[in-house]
Amino acid sequence: MSEAPEKLAEGTLISHLLELRARLIRALAAVGLFFIPCAYYSNQIFTFIAKPLLDKLPKGGTLIATGVMTPFTTPFKLSFFVALFIAMPYVLYQVWAFVGPGLYRREKRFAVPLMVSSVVLFYAGVIFAYVVVFPMIFAFFTSTTPQGVSMMTDITSYMDFALTMFLAFGIAFEVPVAVVLLVLTGIVKLEMLKANRGYVLIAIFIIAAILTPPDALSQCVMAVPMYMLYEGGVLMAQIMQRMQRTAAERDAAKV
Questions:
Q1: 64 - beta bridge partners?
Q2: Three-state secondary structure along 99-156?
Q3: Residue 8: what pLDDT?
Q4: How far apart are CA 58 and CA 187, in angstroms?
Q5: How many whole angstroms separate alpha carbon 137 and alpha carbon 139?
């Protein structure tokens, strides 16, 4: 028995713009809702983020604020990024709710797991940076401080460094999702990814060298998980490609 062709919901340009505005307002409202408590506890949040460095500083070492307003503005700015980080699943849900009606059922079947995986992997990358990477690189930096030099980092510089590292590792952990998308969309053949593992490994180390501080330890700490995630992405793409082929054959058999 054949099934009727699937029809997608259509709308006018005005309706799409109104829908987009509503989704943006909801996303911003969610970030604002989380920002209020984060701003109230901004100093405690900054202390928590700075703990990996504070634990590795020599006895008596501390962070400093070189600007008059820095003790207030730096934790306040950090509160916004923390609120965005917490609200990210809801923000991405709004993106999905806007884009989802324009996808076919078969596309939705793969898009939802990929979106959920991307969120989980981004959070995993940030947690990995905080728990594993920060203690290692800060221990290295403090141990290489020249004799007679006191390491006193400005809190704004530390916040910028921490946010950059969080973003870098969050994006780096998206490698499996990127691999799956490249294969499922047909941009890259799965066989090509398997055959060029050596070139991929070199590219990963180059990317890690760009995203991390200029030392071999930080580069390896990022590159090794990235390559493992790449292999996981190849395996995941192989499984999903097989599922996609099976679904296509099943749909063809119903026609």
A1: 154
A2: HHHHCCHHHHHHHHHHHHHHHHHHHHHHHHHHHHHHHHHHHHHHHCCCCCCCCCCEHH
A3: 46
A4: 51
A5: 5
Q: What percent of the chain has pLDDT over 70?
A: 85
CB 177 within 8 A of CB 117: yes
Q: Which residue has 């330890």 as its token pair?
A: 217
**Dist. CA 66–CA 42, nearest whole Å:** 19
Confidence band of 109 (pLDDT split at 50, 70, 90): low
Look up tokens 């709710």; give the residue: 97
Beta bridge partners of 154: 64
Q: Is the dihedral of CA 37, 38, 41, 44 positive or negative?
A: positive
In terms of Cα–Cα distance, which of 229, 82, 223 is closest to 166? 82
The answer to whether 238 touches 178, Cβ cutoff 8 Å, is no
DSSP 185: T
Phi then psi for 152, rounded to 5 degrees? -130, 100
